[in-house]
Write a structure and sequence with these properties.
The protein has about 375 residues and is of the alpha/beta class. The protein has 11 helices and 13 strands.
């Protein structure tokens, strides 16, 4: 009997591990930067009514025009000259947006540039798409020096340069000047600048202000954080029309199902409630930061809905496990470059934040 041989995965993927966040059954989950509260009850009621009227036997709108138009209307105020639907690309979470960008502009024989530590999916998705990944560093405060950024872009000529602002998992927002320098450098080598603003609504400023039809810049955002819709898996990119047209070539047909499109349009009606949630989370972030300041930890300033910190007298892994034992789950960031013993806590409800601070006091004692 002939021995069956399994097909081999691509050699560049053989040693690659998947991207996973631990899902543990605990009382307080503060590890994935979700919004701590659901959208208004009215949202669920309207969505249920829309779904009852849906023609389930028909394919969804392949162009997702209504959703893209609603996103354009919502984000227009931040973009010089406003936005149209043809400047918006929507997909299944910002990760599929990033994947589509890499499929269109990176891939085999091309490289992407990231600045570590940062969102791990930038590197992971680029590698899955066959691109070489180049890494720049950050300073002790996890900032990026503009001259070093320009040097790395000029010397390596990456097809895509990724910036994350506010940066995940460190929380800092990039100065406008740094993003503008990066864009000029990227354009000088014929590359593309991707600014990941998954936490952009928490930031004091946005790269949306630099967008233009002649600029090689795309900004990505998500419904998962401030819009309280992580269950939707819906994200979007805003950029020049020519870029959106190219992304439409690589995404699968009918990739956005009809319920997702309907829910996305409905969620955007609650902008006032979203802004109120952001304000409340910023207030709670300050309260958690004050609590951390009284404990034996080092923390870093954050412009997002999370705080990165490092225990000073115990290993991060030990503190993480002690928190789990107290029913609180945070993110262990020790595997990120330069983040040994670091933990990241998502800002939750006032009650959840109290549970975290109480558990951390016990874990550190």
């Amino acid at each position: 009997m002939t021995e069956l041989r399994r097909p081999r995965v691509r050699p560049d993927l053989e040693l690659m591990t998947g991207y996973h966040s631990p899902q543990i059954d605990v009382d307080v989950r503060l590890n994935t930067n979700e919004a701590p509260e659901s959208p208004p009850e009215e949202f669920s009621e309207l969505l249920a009514a829309e779904l009852r009227a849906l023609e389930w036997n028909r394919y969804p709108d392949r162009s997702a025009h209504s959703l893209r138009s609603a996103i354009a209307e919502t984000e227009s105020a931040g973009v010089p000259g406003g936005l149209g639907a043809d400047q918006v690309f929507a997909a299944n979470g910002s990760n599929e947006v990033l994947q589509s960008i890499c499929l269109a502009y990176a891939g085999a024989g091309r490289s992407v540039l990231t600045f570590e530590p940062t969102y791990a999916l930038h590197s992971h998705i680029a590698r899955v798409c066959g691109a070489e990944v180049l890494h720049g560093g950050r300073d002790e405060a996890f900032g990026i020096a503009g001259d070093e950024l320009v040097r790395l872009v000029s010397e390596n000529r990456p097809a895509i340069t990724f910036l994350c602002s506010p940066n995940n998992p460190t929380g800092g927002v990039l100065p406008n000047e740094t993003v503008a320098e990066a864009l000029d450098a990227v354009e000088s080598v014929g590359g593309l600048l991707v600014v990941d603003e998954a936490y952009g609504q928490f930031s004091p400023h946005s790269a949306l202000a630099l967008l233009g039809e002649q600029r090689s810049l795309v900004v990505t955002r998500t419904f998962s954080k401030t819009w309280s819709a992580a269950a939707l898996r819906l994200g979007y990119a805003i950029g020049p029309t020519w870029l959106v047209a190219e992304l439409s070539k690589v995404v699968l047909p009918y990739h956005l199902d009809a319920p997702k499109q309907i829910a996305g349009v409905l969620a955007l009606r609650y902008g006032q409630e979203m802004r109120a949630r952001v304000a409340a989370l910023v207030e709670q972030r300050g309260r958690v930061a004050e609590g951390l300041a009284d404990l034996a930890v080092t923390q870093w300033p954050s412009d997002a809905n999370f705080i990165l910190f490092r225990p000073e007298r115990r290993r991060g892994e030990e503190v993480w496990q002690a928190l789990v034992d107290h029913g609180v789950l945070v993110r262990n960031c020790a595997s990120w470059p330069g983040l040994e013993d670091c933990l990241r806590v998502t800002i939750g409800t006032p009650v959840e934040n109290d549970r975290f601070l109480d558990a951390l006091r016990s874990a550190l004692s």
